[in-house]
């Protein structure tokens, strides 16, 4: 993901993993710069398209995990936030993250536009393909928030938060590492964004969940937890498969280069590790829920897939296959164990976004040191802490500002009725169940 | 006090509701039901095998009215729900001992 | 999209946009013809696969926007039309559109088959990949029709219409521009088909909607409009995301070449502009419905995404990013403003296909002149008018012929019961709501 | 698919089809080995990603074809089996199938891991990309089983079966052909797996269906068949479209090479033939159900698409377009005619997996001799029989072992209640229909 | 005229319907309901938290019959719906004043 | 024997159920219904056109109780279901001739 340090990082990873001698093929004049440029650009376009598709995955997962009275609203939030991310990352985010950070804290406040062909960097990839690829990552961070806060946050306040998150907060912390800022100089490693994307989104979600409070009826005064099952398991499953699919673009594309034997091999290794970690996350979650609760919990299995994916995201390249299994399986276990923990803390996270993206994001970031000799515990902890602190603080200010300016949460009555009626005046399934007769004819 | 239970074709709901409203009856409760009577269902083929679709979707309308309105209400429903085709449905007229409005606690005719 | 003029057009666009000097890289012997051939072929295969996926997008969008009693039928129509397009475009369409048009009005009536390797054009791409890419565009035009006419048109008459549309009508008008026919000579520009695909489908839908009439109960004699909400907002949202995803193939693949720095950069620019226009369409629709109706209308936001996409389709390459925002936002506004307009004219378009594909198709075609100096208002108007007139007239004849031969519309009783029972004898959701007990056991 | 014989096979196919002279371009030094390596790797990664997506397709198709009381369980089975396949094919399957088979019956019992860059085979593709591509094929075979046995098999016994199927049974028979084993030497041809993947899965499903018995209420003592409609036609349609999309990766990627004009042209030809056969399958199924039953059966149309796809899979390269139409249309007809046949034999196959994957798999394997002069009827029959016998016998032993060890089938009461409650304690749609009030508030 | 309201297990619908048909009763109306009685629901675990599934899905069958058929109809339902396991359900027997067939306007016994 | 038919706001189900349980009433049957009364529905805009959402989702609770429990049960429902806002619903009290428990064949008060 980090274009300024691409060469170093890739080489580092390679060396770290295999202590391979310089490869003859790499040096051979087998691939001209222009061909590499085309390959790299393709990697960004294909990878970016897959990551774009993750927006649909979050939408479906969340639509399946909320009650039907809030399904249309969560759909509106998800398409809205993806659109907003697309505009904000153009207008502000991209250059704030990548333009002139130079070891510092922040880029420039200018908007992105397509360069002339003559200004393309032939040693990298087409600038607009890079913009596209980085933009979909930014949108992903915002998608994480929508799930955690579903079923109680108003539409516009949520979208306003996303506007600042995608235009300012995400890009600034992104600049620190991928923009070549201070965290990068410090040696922090985060290949595809366990911290920069997933934990960042997770922190924003956690702070939001604390400020918003739990859904009505979730936690009784006496401390009893009342689970609120989601409306559609097949949609939740579809969403998870979409995310899994998109993750190949997320991690694979983050190699940032495809035009040599080593890059192609590395992207392949990333694909295999990514899939393996997700698979291990699923199996760990299924076995663990069976052992703990005597029944497999499908929603945990789905979360387990995502947990495995988030966990491998900080370093999908250097792990061997068995290490990918381990990293993913621990991710799956983390989710199974921390979802009820959050409930004990009365933090109401509708889809499990905080365990999946924040907790596994942290785990994945730490796990880099297991396989990448370039990583140091100190740098990893520094990155986790710095980004956690910044995103939490910025989110806190922003959530509170929106809360006091226009309010965050729907009224109790609107929440009982469902956000679809109160926020959109439109039902997700106007014909099914209790609401059917109105539109039968 | 009477409870009218009407089984009607789903697309007749609006007409029936309007006819009741014309009599000043504002309170109705509607459920989705399935049924058969003289109208018997039909056969379909699914993946090469015939099967009988025995039940036809209907709506059930329950209206509680004062005794003196009962006949007019029943006539109104019948008039509005009739298409003349099989499956038009039924109106059942039962007696209710009392009605209480939850919000106010009013009971009897005052509750309706 | 227009292969005969590819070189000129691409160069024109490039020059038009940036007045760039000839690029050194372009001239360099960096990419051999065979490598370019492989890249171009990949572009068609990957792009075509994405566009194929749009067939599923239309199916889901339409399944979500019709009532549940018509959902199975709309699914049957969508998979049926995609299959028919695949056969007709092979048997008739492709060569009718591309074989020997030569500045004229029509190609040849022969079927397409794979050439021998030796007969491949090494300066372009594999013939079968080109066929595949063009075929999925043809299917898209038919998909547009199915949504507008849903809930009342019989299955087979609809499929017969699609057979002629995809085998004859679409290819003939396509020949005029992309086949290198008279409209092309006239200077008409339509990069990826705002007019050739979207308006063409839109005209066929509009004429069909006029002939079919509105759904029962939609317009009262007194002129009141009774909205008929769709059965599933998450499916409609999923469909929209699928279409958005597929559009990267639609517009990006229409660059028709990928094997050089300039082509890769252009495809990237197209991806970025396409996403940006869609995002602007969503935001415009959300803001506008909030302002006009005090509530966001999710279905308008979804239509807004498609509106932005259709609007940028005629020229996704030359706009700068701010222009892409503008073009897409105007598209979103057009949809919000013209959906109720159609209702005032008692033209019943179930999914908003006419505003999205026809009106925004026209807007997008006109908007070419804003950013592409090669475009002329006269040529753009000529193309819009010629294709509008031809598709409308041909559709009119065809719709009427089918109507008088076998009838177009289901009986009133069948429409009330739902097409799923009357046309298919199968329900989309046999267990939910009113119909559940029959299959509970 | 068969990497050891890749060169021969591709050349054979080419020669077989067109008796083309050696192509000048092929010989030209237009594409360096490293570039070919990158192209081939990309083909595997992109193709494999598409095939991975088929796991979601099976999940959605099956979720749509079972009753809602079993939908969550079928989702759990599908994500579980995909995860298990991903682990087993790493731990055992891949090397069992490909490592040192050498004309024999079996590879080695070692796990797969990423090689060092220096150990990559520059004449092929990145090893991990090949692993990824082969793994998703393995998962597909298991997906076939889940649909046939839905609504009555317990979760864990099913997953245990999948563990052995994907780790041992599938790889062993795969070794015989694609691993370069004895069947390959015998001249058996199966380009992308009509037999190795689809029939293999089909046999495992058939044996399982026989051992499990039919769902309660499906067949009356008097021999009457009671159809059990699925819960959601749009999900079934979505699943079919996903599978169709994924099949481009399945067949196209099985060319195993993309880096030359001939390979690119061949992959293109495969895409076109694949789409055409599917389209013909749909149209055949629609017309045939209309003729036989006076109504189009949507589920048969969906099966028809898959039937066309399975039928063309054994040889998607050599057929001309009209032959692809024929092969696919016969596939569509086979499904329409054999689905009720299975019912007459009281073999209860919930989604039509046996007709689609087994019967059309056999048909497709035989159809190779129609267009590929290298194929012989004897070798094709030998392959069909050998793999049928092996997979059936191994499945039989395995099914029985699991049955007697822990039982395969849920209790009668659990089946009536639905597996979602009994196996998962979780409903797929907790709010709709009979189950709504519990979670309304 | 009696209205029988039977609450049964969903998978017993066909048997009950057949038993009624055997008595010549063609008209039935069915709704989906949930309930509890002596059968109490059960607990499940969702995402690590226990909760009570209080309501069990049942079907409600309403049949209006002439007084003299009521007992036989009630017996027929009970016979067909009984599994002997908890949760088999209830039959409630109420009195209806009149029944009117919408299509024909017939009322009383003639309407049934 | 009385059948109480209560129409309540969906989110009040648990409270009502608890109130009945406190009286020792274990058997209830619930259906999803829609209705209007003094609460009239509201208008929405869909794709630029206004329309009336006439029916508001409610739950219907049917409880059959012995005569002497009827009033207390009715009061319990009313107490638990009341929010004081419009749309709180109604309780209708009808008379039932008999109740039979399917599993055991018990009837009358013993069945409840
Ligand atoms: N005796 C009955 N008891 C309960 N419901 C009945 C009875 N007779 C008819 N119904 C209901 O009325 C509906 C319409 O009755 P049907 O006899 O088909 O209409 P028609 O009077 O037009 O022939 C049925 O589907 C069923 O729901
Ligand atoms: N007193 C009652 N009032 C209303 N419905 C009841 C009553 N008792 C039972 N039911 C209904 O009958 C169903 C079955 O009753 P239950 O007591 O569980 O069966 P069983 O008699 O086999 O123990 C319940 O789920 C409920 O819907
Ligand atoms: N006369 C009636 N007959 C049948 N159902 C009624 C009647 N009156 C009210 N209801 C039902 O009770 C519900 C609540 O009644 P409503 O008058 O809106 O409540 P409130 O008493 O608080 O004003 C309605 O939605 C309807 O389902």
Per-chain topology:
The complex is a heterohexamer, with 3 copies of chain A (441 residues) and 3 copies of chain B (112 residues).
Chain A (H helix, E strand, L loop, with lengths): L5 H13 L5 H4 L5 H33 L5 H28 L28 H22 L6 H23 L4 H4 L8 H19 L20 H21 L7 H33 L4 H16 L7 H24 L8 H19 L5 H30 L5 H6 L1 H6 L17
Helix pairs in contact in A: 3-4, 3-5, 3-9, 4-5, 4-6, 5-6, 5-8, 6-8, 6-14, 8-13, 8-14, 9-10, 9-11, 10-11, 10-12, 11-12, 11-13, 12-13, 13-14
Chain B lengths: L1 E7 L4 H10 L5 E9 L5 E5 L2 E5 L2 E10 L1 H15 L8 E12 L11
Antiparallel strand pairs in B: 1-5, 1-6, 2-5, 3-4
Bound molecules: adenosine-5'-diphosphate (ADP) (3 copies).
Write structural notes for this entry.
The complex is a heterohexamer, with 3 copies of chain A (441 residues) and 3 copies of chain B (112 residues). Chain A is an all-alpha fold. Helix content of chain A is 68%, strand content 0%. Chain B has 112 residues and is an alpha+beta fold. Helix content of chain B is 22%, strand content 43%. Chain B has 2 helices and 6 strands. In chain B, the strands form 2 sheets. A 4-stranded antiparallel sheet of chain B has the order 2-5-1-6, covered by helices on one side. In chain B, strand 3 (42-46) and strand 4 (49-53) form a beta hairpin. Chain B is elongated. The model of chain B has no long low-confidence stretch (mean pLDDT 93). Chains A and D meet through helix 3, helix 9, helix 10, helix 11 and helix 12 of A and helix 3, helix 4, helix 5, helix 6 and helix 16 of D. The complex binds adenosine-5'-diphosphate (3 copies). One adenosine-5'-diphosphate sits between chains F (7, 35-39, 56, 58, 86-90) and B (27-29, 62-64, 101, 103, 112). One adenosine-5'-diphosphate sits between chains B (7, 35-39, 56, 58, 86-90) and E (27-29, 62-64, 101, 103, 112).
Task: List key phrases describing it.
heterohexamer; A: 441 residues; mainly alpha; 0% strand; globular; B: 112 residues; alpha+beta; two-stranded antiparallel ribbon; 2 helices; 22% helix; elongated; binds adenosine-5'-diphosphate
């Amino acid at each position: 993901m980090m274009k300024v340090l691409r060469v170093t990082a890739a080489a580092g990873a390679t060396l770290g993993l295999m202590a391979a001698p310089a490869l003859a093929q790499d040096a051979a004049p087998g691939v001209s710069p222009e061909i590499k440029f085309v390959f790299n650009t393709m990697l960004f376009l294909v990878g970016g398209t897959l990551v774009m598709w993750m927006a649909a995955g979050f939408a479906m997962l969340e639509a399946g995990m909320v009650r039907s009275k809030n399904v249309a609203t969560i759909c509106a939030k998800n398409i809205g936030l993806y659109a907003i991310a697309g505009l904000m990352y153009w207008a502000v985010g991209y250059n704030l993250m990548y333009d002139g950070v130079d070891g510092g804290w922040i880029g420039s406040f200018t908007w992105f536009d397509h360069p002339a062909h003559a200004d393309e960097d032939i040693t990298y990839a087409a600038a607009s393909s890079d913009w596209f690829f980085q933009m979909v990552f930014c949108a992903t961070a915002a998608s994480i928030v929508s799930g955690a806060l579903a079923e109680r946050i108003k539409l516009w306040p949520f979208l306003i938060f996303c506007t600042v998150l995608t235009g300012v907060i995400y890009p600034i912390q992104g600049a620190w590492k991928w923009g070549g800022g201070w965290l990068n100089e410090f040696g922090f490693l985060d290949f595809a964004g366990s911290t920069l994307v997933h934990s960042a989104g997770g922190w924003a979600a956690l702070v939001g969940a604390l400020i918003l409070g739990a859904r009505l009826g979730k936690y009784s005064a006496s401390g009893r937890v009342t689970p609120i099952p989601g409306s559609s398991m097949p949609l939740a499953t579809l969403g998870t498969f979409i995310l899994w699919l998109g993750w190949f673009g997320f991690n694979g594309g983050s190699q940032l280069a495809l035009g040599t034997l080593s890059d192609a091999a590395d992207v392949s290794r990333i694909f295999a590790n990514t899939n393996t970690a997700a698979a291990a996350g699923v199996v760990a979650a299924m076995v663990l829920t069976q052992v703990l609760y005597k029944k497999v919990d499908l929603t945990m299995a789905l979360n387990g897939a995502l947990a495995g994916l988030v966990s491998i995201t900080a370093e999908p390249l250097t792990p061997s296959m068995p290490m990918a299994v381990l990293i993913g399986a621990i991710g799956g276990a983390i989710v199974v164990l921390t979802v009820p923990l959050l409930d004990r803390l009365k933090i109401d996270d509708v889809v499990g976004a905080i365990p999946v993206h924040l907790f596994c994001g942290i785990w994945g970031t730490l796990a880099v040191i297991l396989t990448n000799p370039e990583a140091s515990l100190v740098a990893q902890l520094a990155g986790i802490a710095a980004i956690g602190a910044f995103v939490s603080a910025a989110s806190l200010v922003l959530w509170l500002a929106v809360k006091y300016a226009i309010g965050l949460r729907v009224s109790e009555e609107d929440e009982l009725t469902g956000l679809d009626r109160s926020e959109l005046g439109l039902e997700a399934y106007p014909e099914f169940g209790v609401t059917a007769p109105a539109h039968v004819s | 006090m009477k409870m009218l239970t009407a089984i009607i074709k789903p697309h007749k709901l609006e007409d029936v509701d309007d006819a009741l409203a014309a009599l000043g009856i504002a309170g109705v409760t509607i459920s989705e039901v399935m049924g058969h009577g003289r109208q018997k269902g039909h056969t379909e083929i699914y993946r090469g095998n015939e099967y009988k679709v025995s039940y036809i979707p209907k709506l059930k309308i329950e209206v509680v009215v004062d005794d003196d309105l009962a006949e007019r209400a029943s006539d109104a429903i019948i008039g509005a729900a009739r298409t003349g085709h099989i499956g038009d449905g039924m109106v059942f007229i039962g007696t209710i001992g009392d009605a209480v409005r939850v919000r106010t606690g009013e009971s009897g005719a005052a509750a309706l």
